[in-house]
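[RESIDUES AND BACKBONE]
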Amino acid sequence: MSYGSIDGSGFGSRNPFGGPSRQGYQPLATQIDPNELQELFQETSANIFRINSNVTSLERTLRSLGTSNDTQELRDGLHATQQETNKTITTSTKAIKQLSEIVRGSSRQERLQLDRLNNQLSDAIQRYGAVQK
């Protein structure tokens, strides 16, 4: 009974345990189009900017609460901004996780770019948390 040649070439591009062989392995970053990767970085950066802008808007709106400018429209706008910010934070957090997986074996520049975005997102979320209190 023959199971293939001794050098393992009878297994094709798969290892004996069923997974792909290490031979043709490429990190995820090389499997994604570099333009798509940069687009994901830019979208995440834009989302972080949006979160920070919303926090600034919330700070301004909060100063009007309890004054003569306090209206139902103001409170509705405050609520809408909070909902948008929550969704943007969720989207950004998922994008950062996706980027982490993609960039794992990538260039130092892309890993640094991810690290910078991760820190910026963390700072923006902390600002948002402080405003919510």
